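$ run holo --ligand "adenosine-5'-diphosphate" --emit tokens
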Amino acid sequence: MNILVINAGSSSLKYQLLDPETGKLLAKGLCERIGIDGRLNHQVPGADKRVFDIPMPTHAEAIQSVIDALLSPEYGVISSVHEIDAVGHRVVHGAESFADSALITDEMLSVVEACNPLAPLHNPANIIGINACTAVLGKNVPQVAVFDTAFHQTMPPVAYLYALPYEFYEKDKVRRYGFHGTSHRYVSQRAAAMLGRPLEELKLITCHLGNGSSIAAVKYGKSVDTSMGFTPLAGVPMGTRCGDIDAGILEYLMNKYGYNIDEMLDILNKKSGVLGISQLSSDFRDLDTGIEQGNEKAALAKNVFMYSVKKYIGAYAAAMGGVDAVVFTAGVGENGPDLRETITDGLEFLGIKLDKEKNNCRGQEIDVSAADATVHTLVIPTNEELMIAMDTAAVVEGLKK
Ligand code: ADP
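-- output --
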């Protein structure tokens, strides 16, 4: 079975063609500058990356260029469009309407559209990607939406309610939703496989640490709490996002500097986080270079980030009444041995202890805990595309039953 996985943004579109049963990647790529001019980056594993300038006035031309590349006799991987069994779309927000991945229909799309105000930058672009696929592939190829928020729909009210007047939840749906759910779910499943135990028996803390970062408490296979909130601005500090801050700071700075709300949000979303503190970069590799050169603000930014992650680990161990494994994933979590060591340092009282030699690794699936640790520390490269492909296959298989 071949699943085309699409992650559509406002001017870009990432794709992968995958076999969800074997996990085999057939091809992947990126359409950029949609609506501007258009460029396709296409790559088949083991072959050189190809770059083509192709006019892409809309997402439909972008999808068509993806299909053409996949079918190309020279650098393609399939010989007929019928070899694409289904399309899986990453959709950011499913609000309280979607606790699982779902088959895309006209009625269902109107429910997704109703979630747009909660993710105004992402959901409309995801829907454009879906409509572009329908325009190019027709309605006979099933399409499935996989939501970033769905996995966290199992959170109990104590975890998702903000202490605001209740009508804001009831009328306006203001609550914690959480994001990165596809990644947290994928690494949770992998963690259970690595530990050789059923997911339904495990208490996991999954740390997705990348440009955007979030931590989740996954108890017996269900998300029971997560650090991102109503928007992906909450939780630990990120590359450029501030994470949790006192809401009173907004009023103070807006009054003092005359910022309007858009200017304030721009600061919180794009100029804060480790970039804001370090005044150097949002990228942890740049921070590390800065630290090597004695840049104290770079060190401070990384320390603030690591301290915040450590606090969430403590909080979620408390929330779940224990923890069996802590999982590190995404760019920073998979590739930062020193960062994993610092975050877990001092957590021996919980049973968390690293084997420093094993931990000296990057981007591989490995248990890095010390022999006498009672809690496992796992490094698991995330694979959201594979999870989307697996979900898509499961939904499509379900249709046949
Ligand atoms: P996104 O949230 O955009 O998916 P990623 O998961 O790709 O982000 O993570 C990007 C972050 O991971 C960057 O800060 C980058 O510095 C860091 N990163 C990626 N590779 C490495 C590496 N080899 N060593 C250290 N940090 C890395």
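-- notes --
The two ends are 17 Å apart (CA to CA).
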